[in-house]
Amino acid sequence: MQQVRLDRARRRVVRWLAGAPLPSAGLFQRRRESLFAAYIGVRVFYAVALYQVCDAASLQRFLDATALDPLWCVRWARLTGPALAGSIVYAATVLCAIACALAPARRAARIAFAVALFEFGGLESSFGKINHGWHVLSVCAFLLCFLPSGELNWIRRSTGRVQAYLLCVWSLLASFFLTYTISGGWKVAVGLVQAARLEPNAFSPSALAYHVARRLLETGDSTPLAHVLLRHPTFGWPANLLTLYLETFAIIAAFRPRLHRPWAMGLIAFHLGSGLVLGIGFYHHVLLLGVLGLASPFAPAFDARATLLDLPLFGDAWRWLSARRRQAPRGEASPLTGRPA
Amino acid sequence: MSARRLLPARTLSWSGTRVKPALANQSNLGRPRGACYPGSVASYRLLVRVVVGTALALTIGPSVVRAAGHRSKGEMFPLSRWAMFNRVDSEVDDYGIRIRSLAGQTVSPPVYFENAGLELSQSVTAYHAIQKFAERTLKQEADVGTSRTLVEQRYLGGPGVEYELVARRWDPLVRWNGGSFKSERVIASFVSGASQ
Questions:
Q1: B118: alpha, beta or left, given left = phi > 0 and alpha = psi -120 to 50?
Q2: Fewer CB under 10 Å: which end of chain A, C or N?
């Protein structure tokens, strides 16, 4: 009984997360197309990963380093020294990325790449600061270890394998968007606490100006738009609120295929904007958002009305009110218009 | 491929390779007793658990690490709290390196690292390395030497730099408009490459 109730609750949550359902017509055709796009997407993902790891500046940084503050996963680098450790890890990561880009169907290659990338990211973050550019890529590489092996013809012969393949590819986007939701959640939570204390907070018109001034004074740096924004702090307010919305509800967008592309585009715009204003580009994430979000294998053809109805909070509220209006008996006031239905 | 097609589906693992039925049963986690799911469905169920587990690890993991008092404060790669720019600070408390002498020449007045015009002065990684160095110095942690070596060799550019670690308090908007620090307190003085 308990299990049935739990299942029912879980289904209700998933149904709410999924928003307005996609039309059931052409479901199997869509799944075939999604599988094909996902298959290509995995290959492109590894090509992008190869591009990201084979940065010559990384290798040069390892070779030039005379000291290191190694993270827990690369403690062994103390024995070899940064140059040798860096050379080994760099070579292993690049070779594994090449293997994965050539043969993504091979699980051994994917596992090797996940391990090598984990070490690479650890070493990249051993210069005194943990760089967040490698976290998502590492988690995606880990999740891809569970991708069903085999060529496309072999996978599409079994519904279970097709579903597993699609779930695995979707989980890359979901885990990526989840990191934004965690970040947005912290901003909202801390912002509410600061607002309650009547301090400047994440919802204040001057919030972005405070961030920009702090960031640029910490590093003595300057950015193209910083001066304009600090002269007119309210210019950044709408962008700041929109970013909070995009970040906080990103995980819900992952469950709603119509939102994959708009959300990815919004987050790309956020990264480009923060590059222009704060000097923090997160260009690794821009590429991944392109591969996993803009080229999402699950996104249907664009439909503006359906997309708006899928928007978290606003779309949900509109759909709920519409459903109430449909259910209201004739003669009762409609919650949308206030007039009798 | 043709041999695979002849095999019953439940003796195939999710990698598509043939496994013994007993082993296949072990891999079907959560499968009800007596049920007879194909291997691909079992792999799907396993994958669902992996995805949910990863999501939980990403969400709760960093907070658990932090609550456990681990020195990484939840930033245990590849886990991260993703708590970036969550506080809007009208008063910032941080640490800076104030350089008094560089390459044998006295710097007058002393300048902070970020304004010293060194090769990596504008690096945010350097800024965070300095914060870590100062925190370890204040707490007198065992591996303060590692942080110091890193800062001196990588960011200060070698031996013979006289500098002091300073705890600072400042308002971002006031300083941006030409104001000064609210307070500056010297924690320790060093010469790079020498003992304290």
A1: beta
A2: N
